[in-house]
Specification:
The complex is a heterodimer of chains A (209) and B (505).
Chain A lengths: L7 H7 L4 H14 L10 H12 L17 H7 L5 H9 L15 H12 L5 H19 L36 H5 L7 H11 L7
Chain B lengths: L4 E7 L5 H11 L11 E4 L16 H6 L33 E2 L4 H11 L5 H14 L2 E3 L7 H12 L5 E2 L1 E3 L27 H7 L3 E3 L2 E11 L2 E11 L2 E12 L2 H11 L2 E2 L10 E2 L8 E4 L5 E4 L15 E5 L9 E7 L5 H4 L9 H9 L6 E8 L5 E4 L5 E4 L3 H20 L4 E4 L12 E5 L22 E2 L1 E3 L14 H19 L3
Parallel strand pairs in B: 1-2, 1-10, 2-7, 9-22, 10-23, 11-12
Antiparallel strand pairs in B: 3-6, 4-6, 5-15, 8-9, 9-10, 13-21, 14-17, 14-20, 15-16, 16-17, 18-19
């Protein structure tokens, strides 16, 4: 399911709604990336499931899965310093702890137990390193405010500002979508009003005209 | 295409080039006729022009410097190296603007390393100029955090000598984005863009952006050479710029690589045939190696309110030898906000799940801080290998011993501050050739002996007439702190020496 096929209204309605949300996520990934036969699984599905444990979504509390209709997993995988084979390994090694089940077959609590075990180093340094790299990439993408982390630019690379902008305000975050900045209460690049508020403070302590 | 004949062509408009261009154009004259000099300042990256207005910023730069993590800032880097900026203003546009003007030991180390007369007395007026132009002053108490003040009190009681950090800023509104490092949207961070570029333009310097200098044409004259012209590429067009004097200010990597491409360097360098030999080009690179040892702490209460970004802090210095070798520099910062993408990976952030989200939502990063030692006078050196890569070598025993001592000292301070958890970054058992670093200098170092240096104390090439190098690559030893303001001071000093010897009637 592409971004175009999910309206923002539909998307927000489905956000954090348990099984429905999961269905949206997996459908999105499975149609965008065919499972490589050689691996016996789709690495993107594993990344999506890992992302959901790293930044869970709950009703009223959006997380990683909330952004699947915006292809967050594709963005994570674009620069993921982990190979498909390593993802397969991370998925299959859960079987040692859970009677042969893969990570994808685990329930939420079991997935968390697996994370605890891997991060504690109980499953070996290699798995800990793999999961650590995935964690780093997922957090970076989510909390850099994907998918509202960039402004469109013209051919010369100059950011295209919203119509009517008079102060070159370059914050692409919207109120319509809950992103990493919203989750963490970060306002992003300053508004003109916030700039002015700060200037009015600094003018009294450290200002040279 | 720009005019092709200049009295002076300066290659690289980063930290040093604009200072050199402004000073020479303002104060120098053609010694033959007393006329104003025709000066070109050439830069591989773009020029985002605009009248500086510190605290507000100019429209084009406000638009270009978005403070977004969209990857676009990489466009202005050489080889994706965060320390190598390709833009008019160079790394002065994205440095941390933490000002560490030279300390007494730094002057002594320059003298001891290569016999330079770069003494505190000789550089006094240059340092004073940079202090004035870059508006270097202590960060105001009003933006200090509770954690920083606690650190100061505790460290003082323990017998240390903590000092408030000085910044190079004017009308900073402390948004905190600059430590990301992002370029300053408000023209507040002291950069050559807002200080010396306007002076250069006022004095008629031709700023030539988006132009790559492929090589310097060096005409062989026996074992020596004469620099004649620059082979340039702008928008795919190749052309030549002739100049009576060529000043290289391309930075610690750009400068030696240009000389090497031009056939000036060690005999063993492969690629272009060597026209003039000097074994020191691309060697002796000093800097602050990444040797681990950073110590961070978690507190039960917020150490700051996050209001004024991640600016300021304190530092302290520790020596265990009279000559300053193995010197430790500690940087202290507590209760400062960070970008969410940085906070999420904080050493004390829970590893995953709802606890991690809670840490993010409740701004757990404000309960953390760090006291990070670095060995600011290390024992190793980098060299540039024939593939243009840096290799770190030497005996690292002093560096490793000192970083371990520093980590222990930091831990003791943090314990006294009442930290509930303390974590130390691992210290390697040895430093490898691939060890990274920052604040690197010395790749075309200045010195009195041509056998051990590339330029003389007057920044003139030992071996090639009409050729000068004066940027970080000429500095023979790294300074105690960040090298930005020492390098700027040395460039002012270099300009006065070059004018005195070459551009005075």
């Amino acid at each position: 399911m592409s971004k175009k096929k999910v309206s923002r209204r539909d998307f927000l309605r489905k956000t954090g709604s348990g099984a429905t949300g999961t269905a949206v996520v997996l459908a999105s990934i499975q149609t965008s990336q065919a499972a490589p036969a050689a691996l016996g699984m789709d690495p993107a599905v594993v990344v999506a499931a890992l992302g959901d444990v790293l930044i869970p979504s709950d009703p009223g509390d959006p997380g990683y899965k909330t952004l699947e209709p915006y292809n967050i997993t594709a963005e994570v995988m674009r620069d993921l310093p982990v190979s498909d084979e390593e993802l397969v390994l991370l998925n299959s090694q859960a079987g040692e702890l859970f009677s042969g089940k893969t990570f994808l077959q685990l329930k939420e609590r079991e997935r968390e137990s697996y994370f605890d075990s891997v991060f504690a180093g109980d499953r070996g340094e290699n798995l800990r390193r793999i999961l650590g790299r995935i964690r780093q990439r997922v957090f970076r993408v989510f909390y850099k405010n994907y998918p509202e982390h960039a402004l469109p630019r013209d051919r010369q690379g100059v950011p295209i500002l919203p119509p009517g902008d008079t102060h070159q305000i370059t914050n692409p975050n919207t109120k319509g979508l809950a992103t990493g900045w919203d989750v963490s209460g970060f306002m992003g690049p300053l508004t003109w009003e916030e700039e002015q508020r700060r200037r009015s403070i600094v003018e009294k302590i450290d200002w040279i005209e | 295409m720009p005019e092709t004949k200049y009295d002076v062509a300066i290659v690289g408009a980063g930290f040093s080039g604009p200072i050199m261009a402004a000073k020479i154009a303002e104060k120098g004259v053609n010694p033959r006729n007393g006329e104003r000099l025709k000066v070109a300042l050439i830069e591989a990256g773009p020029y985002f022009k605009g009248a500086p207005r510190p605290g507000y910023g100019s429209p084009l730069r406000r638009q270009m410097f978005t403070n977004l993590e969209d990857g676009y800032a990489g466009t202005y880097l050489w080889n994706n190296d965060r320390s190598l900026a390709k833009i008019v203003g160079g790394s002065s546009l994205h440095w941390g603007a933490q000002a560490f003007l030279p300390f007494p030991a730094d002057y002594l180390h320059w003298q001891r390393e290569t016999g330079l007369d770069w003494t505190e007395d000789n550089l006094r007026s240059a340092v004073a100029e940079i202090r004035r132009e870059f508006n270097i002053h202590k960060y105001p108490d009003e933006i200090d955090t509770r954690g920083n003040q606690l650190f100061y009190d505790v460290a003082k009681k323990m017998g240390h000598d903590p000092k408030r950090q000085e910044g190079a800023r004017r009308n900073c509104i402390y948004c905190g984005f600059c430590n990301s490092p992002m370029m300053c949207k408000y023209d507040s961070r002291a950069s050559t863009m807002v200080t010396y570029i306007p002076v250069a333009e006022k004095n008629g310097v031709d700023i030539i952006p988006d132009t790559y200098v492929e090589k310097i044409w060096i005409e062989a004259q026996g074992e020596r050479g004469i620099a004649r012209s620059l082979h340039c590429i702008t928008g795919g067009s190749r052309y030549e710029i002739e100049a009576d004097k060529i000043i290289v200010t391309g930075g610690y990597m750009g400068s030696p690589l240009l000389l090497l491409r031009s056939g000036y360097g060690p005999r063993e360098w492969r690629g272009n045939p060597i026209i003039v030999e000097n074994p020191n080009v691309g060697k002796h690179i000093d800097g602050h190696p990444r040797a681990g040892g950073g110590v961070s702490a978690l507190f039960d209460e917020p150490m700051g309110d996050g209001e004024f970004g991640n600016i300021g802090g304190y530092f302290m210095i520790h020596d265990d030898r009279a000559d300053g070798e193995g010197r430790l520099l500690f940087r202290a910062g507590f209760g400062s906000s960070r970008l969410p993408s940085q906070s999420a990976l904080n050493a004390f952030a829970p590893l995953y799940g709802r606890e991690h989200k809670k840490f993010m939502r409740e701004k757990g990063v404000l309960r953390t801080g760090s006291l990070s030692p670095s060995v600011s006078k290390p024992s190793g050196r980098w060299t540039i290998d024939p593939d243009g890569k840096l290799l770190y070598g030497g005996d690292h025993s002093l560096t490793l011993r000192r970083i371990k001592e520093g980590a222990q000292m930091a831990r003791e301070v943090l314990e006294q501050m009442g930290a509930s958890q303390i974590r130390s970054a691992p210290i390697p058992s040895n430093l490898s050739p691939r060890t990274g670093g920052s604040h690197r200098v010395g790749s075309c170092r200045a010195g009195v002996d041509p056998k051990t240096s590339v330029v003389n104390p007057y920044f003139e090439s030992h071996d090639v007439d009409n050729l000068f190098v004066c940027d970080g690559s000429a500095i023979p030893r790294v300074t105690t702190g960040n090298t930005g303001t020492p390098q700027a001071s040395i460039t002012v000093f270099a300009a006065s020496r070059i004018i005195e010897r070459h551009f005075k009637r």
